[in-house]
Design a protein that fits this description.
The chain is an all-alpha fold. The chain has two helices and no strands. It has a domain of 37 residues.
């Protein structure tokens, strides 16, 4: 992990993030649009999560054995 190539690549990545941060701080419109995009994606993911949970719940209900509606034979002492 200390090879010259690894050090060079890590510096490249850090510089790219620094440039991205500078770009976002300079361009407020881009930052606003990026925030809107992120909010829209989070909303869609939440909707998908709810849908997946509903599907899993329905599958679990279908996996339960049906309850028998037959009465037992003989005398029952239940009060």
């Amino acid at each position: 992990m200390n090879s010259p190539r690894v050090v060079e690549m890590s510096l490249y990545v850090v510089r790219a993030f620094v440039q991205l941060r500078e770009l976002l701080s300079c361009d407020k419109e881009l930052a606003k649009r990026l925030d809107q995009l992120e909010a829209r994606i989070e909303k869609k993911l939440a909707t998908h999560d709810e849908t997946i949970a509903a599907v899993l719940s329905a599958i679990r209900e279908l996996m339960k054995p049906p309850q028998s509606k037959r009465r037992s034979i003989g005398f029952s002492a239940d009060l």
